[in-house]
Amino acid sequence: MIEMMRFAEKGDFPAVRTLWETCFPDEGGFNDYFFAHFYKEKYTLLYLEGETLVAMVQMLPYRMTVGGVSREVTYIYGACTDPAHRRKGYMARLLERSFELDRQAERVASVLIPAEKWLFDFYKPFGYEPFFHISRGEITRTAGEREAPRRLTSADVPALAALYDKLVPKCRIERDTAYWNAQLALFDTLGAGVYGWFKDGTLTGYAFCWEDNAQELLGAGDAQLQGLLDVLRRDMLAVTEIGAETALGVCKWHNKADETAGYMNLMLN
């Protein structure tokens, strides 16, 4: 049987969506949202057995600041193999092909966020090493001062971008206006929204919130966190902040870099 790798075409959509649903079942509406707003054939690398789709990866384009310079990277997302065709090396071949395409395009690295802890070991033989770290914790309702945030909108994108560039490590995934607007729309539609705190008209902290967690929390102190709990009407909230405690993502460098750590989050993860 002839095997081949190629990027998706319009006619592949039913098979792509079926494989996605098989590997990433969803009850919260994310899959519908992803395919309506983020999916593009030109970023979807397929592996076919004859005419049967058996595995695929998304090669999403991003830029990362490396050594103070903006460089192109590929974010590997939605890597999946049909359960009936696993342990045949298809994912390995897809990843190796993605690396070839990266090098041809002079992209500096391939990055991804393993969905489960054991996958860090799966990706290691391909050259991926833990590189992007975060800190996770929980906040609980207490007595004392509280500062309520306000809901952020697309008008706040410049302030969000400025605070992100100020607070996160220098080696980071870059975020342009389209990125910020897409994330705001995602969290407004499927999550609990995006909230921010201001001082003298300047954004000092923000939180991208799902119902039970703040996926990215920057610049908030105790009073702000209590105010966020009030707004969300919760007694407890899991939060993810900048830190070095937990590996979130991995990086495979195609060109040697002196960077030892970086930051990424809000990557549809």
UniProtKB/TrEMBL annotation:
InterPro entries named in the record: Acetyltransferase_Eis, Acyl_CoA_acyltransferase, GNAT_dom
A Pfam short name: Acetyltransf_9
Top-level taxon in the UniProt lineage: Bacteria
Coiled coil regions, renumbered to chain: none
Descriptive protein name: N-acetyltransferase domain-containing protein
N-acetyltransferase domain segment(s): 3-144
